[in-house]
Design brief:
By secondary structure, the chain is mostly helical. The protein is 74% helix and 0% strand.
């Protein structure tokens, strides 16, 4: 799944994101509103990881995501 698809499927992905990264709050998810470019910096802040690591992990999980 690429980032454009992610943004189009945000309602379905929102719950998946919360499962992957349980430190994100509902307010965090409301703030990013499904914009993939805003999720990576948010994850960096919450988890204290580098941008490169966070981007790779986000991309890896999107590629593995299965939407029914």
């Amino acid at each position: 799944m690429n980032q454009d698809t992610f943004e189009r499927t945000w309602p379905e992905m929102r719950d998946q994101i919360r499962e992957w990264w349980d430190e994100l709050t509902e307010e965090d998810l409301d703030q990013v509103q499904g914009t993939a470019a805003e999720i990576v910096p948010l994850l960096q802040r919450r988890y204290g990881t580098s941008r490169l690591y966070t981007q790779k992990e986000f991309s890896r999980r999107l590629e593995a995501a299965k939407l029914d």
